[in-house]
Write a structure and sequence with these properties.
heterodimer; A: about 270 residues; mainly alpha; ABC transporter involved in vitamin B12 uptake, BtuC; about 0% strand; B: about 260 residues; alpha/beta; Rossmann fold; 3-stranded antiparallel β-sheet; about 30% helix
Chain lengths: ~270, ~260
C-alpha cells in the first residue's frame, strides 16, 4: 500500500477520502439520528438541476449547484417541518425533478457533453489540491459549529418538543442542519460522487449507532469507520484496477450487512440461551 | 419559590386558532400552587393546545397567559414538561443520565466546555430519588415503557420546577405501571403543582384535586366526584354537548364528593 502513496494523485485521493469521511461522519450522524436520509438523498439529486442550470447559463458550476441545492433544501425543510408524512412525497418529486431538469438543461446546452458517471461516482483519483483546501476549511468550520451547538443538536435530535420547552431554537437549527447537508453534499459530490456521499452519510453512522452510547461517540466512530472504508476501498481499487468510488461503497455495504447479520445471530443466540 | 395561594398559571380570555379553525375560545383558567389538576375532554377538544399555551410553545391569538407572573417560556426551568412517550426518539444514542441532564440545558449558557460534573451530580440525585440510579448508564432504547416514563419525569424534575405538566402519560403503560405512576405523582404533589392530561377517570377520581374540562373552552371544577359518577357523566356527554360532563354530574342529587388528599 505504501509504495502507492509515492504518487501525488494517490496522496490527494487518500486525503480527499479522509476529509470526506470526517465531513460525512459528522453530518451523516445528525442525518441518521434525525431520520433525514431520504431528505439528504433528495437534496443531493436535486443539486443536479443546479449543475445543468449552471452549464446552460454559462455560470461556474459550484455556486450554481450550491444555490440550487440550498433552495430545494429549504423547501424540503419547510415542508417536512409542517408535516413529516406529506414531506416524503414532495421530496420524492423534487428528487426526480432535479435529476430530470439537470439532464434536460444539459441537452439544451450547445456543445456540452458532461459525463454523468463522473457526477454519480466522482473522480477521487483526480482531485485537485484546491478542492482539498476547500474541503479542509468546510471540515474545520463544521467541527467548530458542531461543538458550539452540540447540546442544542442533542436535545433537538432526542426530543424536539422538549427541546423547544427548554428554549432551543429548534426551527432555526433544523433549517441550519438541512442547509449544512446541502452545502456539504454538493462540495463532497464533486470529489467522490453522489452515490458515495449518500453511502458515506448513512452506512458509517448506521453501524456506529449500534455501538455508541452518546451522539459524540457515534460521530467519532462514524468518522473512523468512514476513514477505514475510504482508505481500504482506495487501496483495493488500485491493486485490482477497479473504479474507486464503487469499491469504497461495496466495502462499506458488505461491512454493514455483516454487522447486521452478526447482530441478528447474537440476538437469536441470547434468546436460545 | 412563590408564596402559597398565589396562582402559578393565569389564563385570561385566551383564544387560539390554527389557521382559520378556532380550537380554544375564551379560556379562563387559574392553577394554584399545590394543585393537582386533571385535564379531560374529547379528542380534538384542545387539551394539547392548552398545554402548549402554558408551555409557551404556542402564542395565544387573543388573551393573556401568565406563568409564575411572567409570559410563558420566559422562566427556564419553572415548568417541567413530560411529553407523550411517542415523541421520544428511542433509537437516539444516549444514556439515561444524559437524558436527565437534558433537563438542565439552557441555550443562553451555551459554551464549548459545559459543566458536566455539576449537571451529572444533580441528575444522579434525581435518579436516586426516583429509584432509577441503577439504570443511569443504560441506553434509553433498552428501557421498558414504565422505566422510560420515570426517566422522562426525572428529566422534568431535575430543573426543580414549580409546575409539572404531563400530556397523556399513561397511554402506553399497563395497569400496574399506571397505578405506580399515579402513586408517584401524588408523592410529587407534596411539594409541586401538577397538571395532567389524561383519559383515566378512575385515576382522576382517586388522585386529582380538581378537574378542568376542555372542549373548545374550559370549565374548571375545584373538586372531584367519585369514579363511577365521573365515568357516567363523561360517557353520557356527546362531543358537541354544550354541557360539561363534570357540570352535568354536579347537578345530580348524589353529593358524595371525595377528597383524596385531606
Amino acid at each position: 500500500m505504501f509504495e502507492l502513496l509515492q504518487f501525488e494523485f494517490m496522496q490527494n485521493a487518500l486525503m480527499a477520502g479522509l476529509l470526506t469521511a470526517v465531513i460525512c461522519g459528522i453530518i451523516g450522524t445528525l442525518v441518521v439520528v434525525n431520520r433525514l436520509v431520504f431528505l439528504s438523498g433528495g437534496i443531493a439529486h436535486s443539486a443536479y438541476g443546479g449543475i445543468g442550470l449552471s452549464y446552460y447559463m454559462g455560470w461556474p458550476w459550484l455556486p450554481g449547484a450550491i444555490g440550487f441545492a440550498l433552495c430545494s433544501a429549504m423547501v424540503m425543510a419547510a415542508v417536512s417541518l409542517r408535516s413529516r408524512a406529506h414531506a416524503d412525497t414532495i421530496i420524492g418529486v423534487m428528487w426526480a425533478l432535479g435529476m430530470a431538469s439537470g439532464i434536460l438543461l444539459l441537452d439544451l446546452t450547445p456543445g456540452y457533453n458532461v459525463d454523468l458517471m463522473s457526477y454519480l461516482f466522482g473522480s477521487i483519483l483526480s482531485v485537485p489540491v484546491s478542492e482539498l483546501w476547500l474541503m479542509s476549511v468546510v471540515a474545520v468550520v463544521l467541527i467548530i459549529g458542531t461543538l458550539w451547538l452540540f447540546r442544542d443538536l442533542v436535545l433537538m435530535s432526542c426530543d424536539e418538543e422538549f427541546a423547544r420547552t427548554r428554549g432551543v431554537p429548534v426551527t432555526q437549527l433544523y433549517f441550519l442542519l438541512v442547509g449544512c447537508v446541502a452545502v456539504t453534499v454538493v462540495l463532497v459530490v464533486q470529489v467522490v460522487g453522489l452515490i458515495l456521499v449518500i453511502a458515506l452519510l448513512t452506512i458509517p453512522p448506521a453501524i456506529a449507532s449500534r455501538y455508541s452510547h452518546s451522539l459524540s461517540g457515534m460521530m467519532v466512530l462514524a468518522c473512523l469507520l468512514g476513514a477505514v472504508f475510504t482508505s481500504s476501498g482506495l487501496w483495493l481499487s488500485a491493486v485490482f484496477d477497479l473504479t474507486s468510488g464503487p469499491a469504497i461503497i461495496f466495502l462499506a455495504a458488505i461491512f454493514f450487512f455483516l454487522q447486521q447479520g452478526i447482530d441478528y445471530l447474537r440476538q437469536r443466540m441470547r434468546r436460545i440461551v | 419559590m412563590s408564596k402559597t395561594g398565589e396562582p402559578l398559571v393565569l389564563m385570561n380570555g385566551v383564544c387560539y386558532a390554527y389557521a382559520s379553525e378556532m380550537v380554544l375560545c375564551n379560556v379562563h383558567l387559574q392553577i394554584n400552587k399545590g394543585d393537582f389538576l386533571a385535564v379531560i375532554g374529547p379528542n380534538g377538544g384542545g387539551k394539547t393546545t392548552l398545554v402548549k399555551l402554558i408551555l409557551g410553545l404556542l402564542t395565544p391569538t387573543r388573551g393573556t397567559v401568565l406563568v409564575g407572573g411572567r409570559p410563558p417560556g420566559e422562566k427556564n426551568g419553572f415548568v417541567g414538561y413530560v411529553p407523550q412517550q411517542t415523541d421520544q426518539n428511542q433509537s437516539f444514542p444516549a444514556t439515561v443520565l444524559e437524558v436527565v441532564c437534558m433537563g438542565l440545558f439552557d441555550p443562553r449558557k451555551r459554551s464549548f466546555f459545559p459543566r458536566h460534573r455539576e449537571n451529572n451530580r444533580l441528575a444522579m440525585a434525581v435518579l436516586e430519588q426516583l429509584a432509577l440510579a441503577d439504570l443511569a448508564g443504560r441506553r434509553i432504547g433498552d428501557l421498558s415503557g414504565g422505566q422510560l416514563q420515570r426517566v422522562l419525569i426525572a428529566r422534568a424534575l431535575v430543573s426543580e420546577p414549580e409546575l409539572l405538566i404531563f400530556d397523556e402519560p399513561t397511554a402506553s403503560l399497563d395497569t400496574r405501571a399506571q397505578t405506580e405512576f399515579f402513586e408517584l405523582l401524588s408523592k410529587l404533589n407534596a411539594d409541586r403543582t401538577i397538571l395532567v392530561v389524561t383519559h383515566d377517570l378512575l385515576a382522576i377520581a382517586s388522585y386529582a384535586r380538581s378537574v378542568a374540562c376542555v372542549n373548545h373552552t374550559v370549565h374548571s371544577h375545584a373538586r372531584v366526584g367519585s369514579a363511577g359518577e365521573l365515568v357516567d357523566a363523561f360517557y353520557s356527554a356527546a362531543r358537541d354537548n354544550p354541557i360539561c360532563p363534570v357540570e352535568q354530574f354536579r347537578r345530580l342529587p348524589v353529593q358524595k364528593e371525595i377528597h383524596p388528599h385531606v
